[in-house]
Automatic annotation (TrEMBL):
Pfam families: NIPSNAP (PF07978). InterPro entries: Dimeric_a/b-barrel (IPR011008), NIPSNAP (IPR012577). Residues 3-103 form the NIPSNAP domain. This is NIPSNAP family protein. Gene3D superfamilies: 3.30.70.100.
């Protein structure tokens, strides 16, 4: 199992609206499509920072879920353009992490 920690820079002044969109639209859509979303955070030190975490059993599951979400008509036609209007996409950072043996996220 591994987690994907995704760090985003939201366009200045739009973070509250972004969080609402993520929590009301993007996360529910991805969960409906099979994603396991573990957490969603705002950065306490960066007024435009946002972080969220997703969990995958293995690389095969990740690839299948990515296809199920990101190749869907709704993602391509509706959600992706809206997401890109909120984010500085060239500043997206994705880190894959594996919990240690005693981690509470195991």
């Amino acid at each position: 199992m591994f987690y994907e920690i995704r760090r985003y820079q939201v366009r200045p002044g739009l973070r509250d609206e972004w969080v609402r969109y993520m929590e009301d639209t993007v996360i529910p859509f991805q969960v409906e499509r099979g994603m396991s979303v573990t957490a969603s955070f705002v950065d306490e030190e960066d007024p435009d920072g946002y972080v969220w975490i997703r969990r995958f059993e293995d690389e095969q599951e990740r690839a299948a879920l990515y296809a199920n979400v990101y190749q869907s008509d709704r993602w391509r036609d509706e959600l992706d353009p809206k997401v890109k209007s909120f984010l500085l996409v060239d500043r997206i950072e994705v880190t894959r992490v594996v919990p240690t043996p005693n981690s509470g996220l195991r």
